[in-house]
Amino acid sequence: MKLRATFAIALLLAVTTVPARTQTKGRWSEQKANDWYAQQPWLVGANFIPSNAINELVMFQAATFDPAINDHELGLAESIGMNTARVFLQDQLWQQDPEGFKKRLDTFLGIAAKHHIRPLLVLFDSCWETNPHLGPQHPPIPGVHNSGWVQSPGKQRLLDHSVEPELKAYVEGVVGAFASDPRILGWDVWNEPDNKGGDKAADEAAKVKRVNELLPKAFEWARSAHPSQPLTSGVWQGDWSNPATESETTKIQLAESDVISFHNYGWPEEFEARIKELQRLHRPIICTEYMARGAGSTFDGSLPIAKRYNVGAINWGLVAGQTQTYLPWDSWDRPYTVSQPTVWFHEVFRNDGTPYRQHEVDLIRELTGRGTPMAEVGTGTDRNVGQ
After folding, report:
1. Cα-based distances in Å from 352 to 52, 72, 159
2. Which residues are in coiled coils (predicted)?
3. Which three-class secondary structure state does DSSP give residue 51?
4. 159 membership: H or E segment, kind and range
5. CA separation for the pair 119, 307 (Å, rounded)
């Protein structure tokens, strides 16, 4: 009897100490996630914002939403074999005009579908401008990488607990509106949640604490809409090989995500090592940010590795434009106003639609087995960008 009692206690302890990531209510099982992934083609795409938009507000606000440029530039993506795109939304767009925002997002999804591209839609983002506002946005700061990107929600809305119902309504509303839409690949619930972005160092602890409170709720809000698409949030820093060393934010991301996503801007050896760290989770893996030439992350180095491991690959940037992300990160401290960088950091195409490196687009076509050269190059809004 004593032996049986001891065994029963041990069994009970084993059940109650299963890691939290296996117990998340509503999370897809490993089998469901892998079955879903088996039905997908190899996913290759870019983080997409049209070249005439400095941030996601300009991309989707009624006054500046531009179907024509989205059509042209997603056509460039299709021409080189891309079949997905990571696209950032913003909570204030929903707060301002839910019906109008849904209509514009529906139009965008129709354009993407025309080009056989299924977007991964990002709901929240902790990077860059801390207090975004609707309406006209400032012009790009000369020589500076991504000088106008905005967070969602910004610091003020994030830390104000009374705003939480608005954030819940946004997630439930936008996911609910498109929960069964086959044009959408999935939902990226929160981009780099614990990134301090443009926040002051003194404010970072409070921000991360609040993010860790909201992140599981955001997954719950999204799941309450019963989406047919998977949910994810990309891990981007720390050691993922040992749960004991993971940050609280990373633990939440890995416990909640139906499919695993990650960011890596390192050399090919690091990129491969990161994939191996995540394979222990036995779920599909998608790299939702990579390719920063000056940091050692290139199509030539990372994309063949992604294909070998059947990992989806979504690079940062498509067409050079208002975000100026062809400039390197060091431009935050040393703006490139007099001289240009030796090599572009991000982006695949110049503003006039010609490839930055022909070899890269040829490689993407070769590895994906998709895409055809554009019959003719369209016109851009500013032929001098990145020249």
Report:
1. 12, 11, 42
2. none
3. coil
4. helix 155-159
5. 19
